Amino acid sequence: MDLSWKEGEMPRHAALPLRERKIQEELRERKIAFELSSRSKKLKAFKRQSRQKKKPVGELLCMLNYCSIQARILRPAFEYVPKSYNLDKQLHGLISHMFVQYPVPAFLYQSCLKHEHYPFKDRLEVFRQWFVTLAQGGSFSKLVKGTLTSREACMFLTAPTANHIHENVWWAKMKVAGLPETLIDKLIERIFSHFILDDPDGRMAEVIQFYARFHSEMNKMTFSEITDFIAWKIRNDRSFHMQGRTITSVIKLTNQWHVQMQKAKLGIHVEWKGLQIPDWEFEAKNLIWTVTELRNNRDLINEGRKQKHCVYSYVHWCTSGRSAIFSMRAFRKIVSGYTDAGYLIWDRSQEQTRVTIEVNSQNAIVQVRGRLNRLATDEERGILRMWAGEKGIRTSG
User: Fold this and answer.
1) In degrees rounded to 5, what are phi and psi of residue 245?
2) Digit-coded pLDDT (tens) for 357-389
3) Who contacts 104 (Cβ-Cβ below 8 Å, separation ≥6)?
4) pTM for the complete prediction?
């Protein structure tokens, strides 16, 4: 459609710009009101579900796994009286009643629960021994000798409550190595969460030492790109080692790997459930913004080729449910037609900008990257916050 016109002339659709704007604004207000109403209903339903009753001790015991430390019980379970209506607190209280004489880090209580989805369930027996040793005043540093040094054992006891136990082993090692906590959290999520305590070939120790030595020489983008590269190599190349590598050599390898990822072939078609968030659209002054979730490896490989970055390597994260990838795009505001109801149909052929968004399993945005891994612009961040707010996704700022 030819949208040009001579000076003094008006196109046939320009006679109703105010009406169209009012219609669009009304639709947008209705959409926001619907989202808020739905969120409010979900919150009320959640609050109703969270008003739990105090469960009988026998029912609580069925949720615990303590057979291997049964001989260490200090007080009979039937004497326990729950003080809270919250199920987690009831379980925590029962475990404390049965086993605990001295304070134990909250994350170690995980070891006494029955787990369906813990990534390394076979190691929970080891962690239960750690728990009961601390709870009853035994020598923890002696128990974990060979896994943690004395300094690492002390640091382990101060690790974040929200982490899995094996993640906090790596947390303690990195903390003692001198890494800042903000980087430790990212390294756990990207690399160390997927590895249990064994490190027979020393590869994980080499990774820690590399970051301890060179993290101060990395900016945010360099850290992200190198970490993606190392995570992929550690997982997919058993012969890969970090020992003896410098920051310069690793950056060179990272750049080569990014090129390989952009040229990667599709192979077997893979799909995943993702977050199931519907496509989103917003009309700005001169642009139409859209956000779409990418739910198969074909979409990721096309996104990576368009953006010249390594999002294709995130197939593993997506299929395991640890990450969801979204593509936010802006198109020139060009009319291509009208619906039967008289609403404008926008052309989507002239893309102006695009960023790729990673959302983690806690519904928080952890990365936003444009072409060649550039950071998002102020305008893109503004649109991103609007989308995230409507969809209940947390942002860092």
Assistant:
1) -85, 140
2) 999 988 999 999 999 888 899 999 999 999 999
3) 131, 134, 135
4) 0.73
Q: Is 202 left (phi over 0), alpha (psi -120 to 50) or beta?
A: left
Alpha-carbon distance of 299 to 315, in angstroms, equals 10
Non-local CB neighbours of 231 within 8 Å, separated by 6+ positions = 190, 191
Neighbours of 383 (CB within 10 A): 22
Cα–Cα distance measured from residue 141 to residue 200, given in angstroms and rounded to the nearest whole number: 21
Q: Which residue has the tokens 């027996």?
A: 125
The answer to whether the CB of 191 falls within 8 A of the CB of 230 is yes
Residue 108 main-chain phi, psi, to 5 deg: -75, -15
pLDDT in tens, 58-91: 999 999 999 999 999 999 999 999 988 899 999 9
Residues 6 or more apart in contact with residue 350 via CB below 8 angstroms: 331, 332, 334
Residues 377, 366 contacting (CB under 8 angstroms) = no
DSSP characters over 369-385? E-GGGPPPPHHHHHHHH
User: What are the E-state strand segments in 245-284?
Assistant: 280-283
Task: Count other C-beta atoms under 10 Å from residue 18's C-beta.
Answer: 8
